[in-house]
Amino acid sequence: MTEFTPWLSLLGGSLIGFAAVLLMAFHGRIAGMTGILSALIPPLSSDWGWRAAFIVGAIGAPALIVGLTGYTIPFESPTPAPWLIVGGLIAGAGAYFGSGCTSGHGVCGMARVSPRSIVATLTFMASTAITVFVIRHVIGGL
């Protein structure tokens, strides 16, 4: 069962949007995690500093909240680890061939009313819905 957390979700989404706006305002860049992270893999891009800071903040902020408050969201997955690895590789291939990830297209591209990002986001969402339907109702799995 998934716990519905509307206030925490609203706060988290607002912080993601705020970070995207700040990155665009101060660096003129899209807050797409795949693009930010890929430029940190050698050879490093010339603007690696802000990219590293963004990734450190994305990982460090939740860790800081847990450390300061002790609050965590319980998470467990009934999906076997090999399936998660394959799913991650498929998502990575999709981000590569789709020229961006859900954060770049879904958050920033949709906000800019980019037709390419709208199509990409609709594709992400449709693929997700089909996958969940097939796994839960056709295969009868998780």
Automatic annotation (TrEMBL):
Keywords assigned by UniProt, alphabetized: Cell inner membrane, Cell membrane, Membrane, Transmembrane, Transmembrane helix, Transport
Transmembrane segments: 6-27, 48-68, 80-97, 118-139
Source organism, top-level taxon: Bacteria
Main location: membrane
Membrane topology: Multi-pass membrane protein
Keyword Signal found: no
InterPro entries linked: Sulf_transp_TsuA/YedE
Cellular compartments annotated: Cell inner membrane
Keyword Magnesium: no
Family the UniProt entry places it in: Belongs to the TsuA/YedE (TC 9.B.102) family.
Name listed for the protein in its UniProt record: YeeE/YedE family protein
Annotated organism of origin: Nitratireductor aquimarinus
